[in-house]
Amino acid sequence: MAAAKREGKIVWYTSVPIETAQKIANLFEQKNGIKVELFRSGGSNILRRFQQEADGGKVFVDVLTHSEPAAARVMTKKGLFVPFKRRTSTRCRRRSRTPMVTHVAQRLNVMAIYLRDDKVPAADRPKRWADLTQPKYKGKMVMADPSFTSLLVTITGMLAKTQGWGFFEKLRQNDILLVQGNQQVSDMVKRGERAIAVGADAAYVGEVKKSGLPVSTLYPEDGAFIIPSPSSVVKNSPNPNAARPLQTSC
């Protein structure tokens, strides 16, 4: 920590919702006296920025937090992150084939369907993902863009595998609206412009309910998603000593 304080700051690229990210940054600064320079965007956007910088041989970020586990595994194989020894029980260490790891799960994202109770009667609620292709949901759905938020990369890939790409073609025919990220999905539901959030972050349901609106989270019978958000210390980062405390604090 003494070395971290001498560095004096840390750069954090993160896809954590902005209010949560700023709260973490403020608490870290108050506790340790180390300034956090925060760049917050969608996970896919963050990964693009980091990859472009890495490909150019320049490292500006100390801690990288996004929501695409597959990308974290690929970048780990490329040697882009600092490995560390996991803190687990002796029993778990004996069973583990990888005592050294390169990221922690900063959070678990529950991704499902949520909707406005006052706009979708209980009898008309979808029970399975394929139900969303029915004509009665035309013009009622909104979904985040995978090119911006990495959570939707996982969801799109898995639903394409289980439902077939025709599922998304039918959603398009059903006039599903694509917006930038999960915050925009939540805003559309709050304003009543769309009634059903598809493959959406359930963490935003509480935010909608705070506004006094009736909202329910639906977990399809054929499965919802729980997606971890990898948080890693970047190799050869400008502030390596300050990076580890922030990563573990997240």
What are its keywords?
single chain, 250 residues, alpha/beta, 9-stranded mixed β-sheet, two-stranded antiparallel ribbon, 38% helix
The computed structural class is alpha/beta
Q: What percentage of the residues does DSSP assign to strands (E)?
A: 15-25%
> What ranges have pLDDT less than 50 throughout 5 or more consecutive residues?
89-93
Radius of gyration: 20 Å
Q: In which range does the helix fraction lie?
A: 25-40%
Query: What are the secondary-structure elements, in order, as H or E?
Result: HEHEHEHEHEEEHHEHEHEEH
Tally of DSSP β-strands: 11
Largest sheet: 9 strands, mixed
Q: Give the integer mean of the pLDDT values.
A: 90
Q: What is the count of helical runs? A: 10
Measured distance between first and last alpha carbons: 16 Å
Large-scale geometry:
elongated
